[in-house]
Fold:
Amino acid sequence: MPDQLQISLSAAQERFLVGESLVFTLSHNVTSALDMETVELNRYRTRIRLTKASETGPHTVEFSGADYIRLHKIHPLSGIGISFHAPAGSSWTSPLDLLNYTSPLEPGSYRVELSYRYGDTEQETVQTNAVYFEVVPAKLLGCRYRWFGTGVPHHQLGCLWTAREEDRTHWFYQASDKTSPAGIEFATRVLTPDFSIETPPRLAHINDIADMHFLRYVAWTEPGMLGWLTVHREGVFGEPQRMDHDLRVAILAEPPLQRRDGGFNAVLVGRDSAVMAGIEPSGERRWRPMPVPGTPASAVVVWDDEENGEGWLFSAAHEATRIYASRLGEPWQVHELDAQAPVLQLAVQQWHGRGTILALTQDEHNLAVLAWDAHDPQLHTRRSYDLEKLELQRHDYVDAAAAAGSPDLAVLLRGPESWVVLSAQQRFELPRDKGTPRLVTYPDGLFLVYHDPNRGFQALRLGEPPPEPRI
Structure:
């Protein structure tokens, strides 16, 4: 009896960078009507066999829905995939992404093939052809994370990362689930730019249910210009857009904003001045200049009136002890906030028009985290670390990340032989046996995310042992 289903694999590309989505096209052809599940993702009917060539001979591993559950930390009793009735004569294609089943693959030559059991017995199994592909190293140039929300602010972790392959630079839009940065949903190559940038590209913030927006805005600066682009999980939508500005040494205030109506806002800050750029859904462009004290080295925005591009800009010069809060809109106002010590970094937490401004400061004796309500210039929390008491005098500041769920910052320091992470609840110390990590906060924990040209992104949850690679 002929099989009721025929399946095959194909690839749009044969060469992938370490860390990007390994997407293949899965074609289906139903010869006799049957009840089935999505072949690319189900609990136990699909088996994916991945073989890596090596000097000692081929090495094969097999993946199934159990690996998807493990990687994304899904409850074992949760349903995955979709069941449906496929009429005779129907045909369709669907994407198969290996990153849904495994961490990024190391460089090398691979073969992938897939089998699917459509009936109750092993004899009722169909198999695809084999597809060969290559994974090559990727040197990371930069990455910027952004949380997207639903009913809560932390639902999906977005990332815009850039990497170099030989003499070309590529941009990738990546998303991880709400359990771990290692639970990658996709990492799509969206652009290979032929222009130089000043401020690295980053995803825009959304003060809304992010799943209601198919596109994501990406913003960056070039010499004398603001640039932006819209992307989605399968690639890019349209061409890069640009707008001239007259600022000297402009920085892009954090965060640019993707508006609920589909528009886009961004603030550029330069010496003694700033501009608010607004892009309407119709494509109309608005440009509003405003004064800003000094030459900010760090700047963040709390957006409260999206459509009119209004809110508060908080800025601080390099090693300044004063933070200036400037009103975006009329009438223009400015307030001074006393940081009490030189400012290392400003950060912002915001959701649906409410926000908290966070500042990390350091003097000779203390590292401190300060927090202000964006609509009340009075300092409402301050927490400090005694560097001498903690034996951290020889440690250098590397990174800070706003805590998920509380008005606080977690801080990453580099010591002579170790990395140190400080948070309100805990202190972690890890050996410096890898490259410089990024600190990523989740509602239930802290992660250090490392990037290796041959391993891609590897996430280490602080307080837990590292996971073992499968291949």
